[in-house]
Structure formats: C-alpha cells, structure tokens
Amino acid sequence: MKKQAKSLFVKHFSTLDDPRKDDQIKHNLLDILAIAICATICGADGWQAIEEYRLTK
Description:
Elements: H1 3-13, H2 29-41, H3 47-56
C-alpha cells in the first residue's frame, strides 16, 4: 500500500473504538478492516469468504 494511502486509511479508521475484550485480541483491528475491505472489493460476500481471501494473499 502506498504510504499516503496507508496514512489516510490509518487516519480515518484509527478513531474507531475496538469493542473486543483485551484478552481476546489476536489481530490488530486496522489489519482486520483492511483485509475485509480488500476482500469485499474483490467480491467476498461474508466472513467465510473474507477468511478465504485472507488465506490466499
């Protein structure tokens, strides 16, 4: 991801509150959002499809 695009992504989404409990966090919320957005753009239509996308990239 280009530095400027990454900076805009982080700036925009870093204000979100993470509703997960601290002891259950395995992955950074921004990483999850980036993967979900990219997978959706590529045609993923649910969490299972997003997971399949993640495993192929």
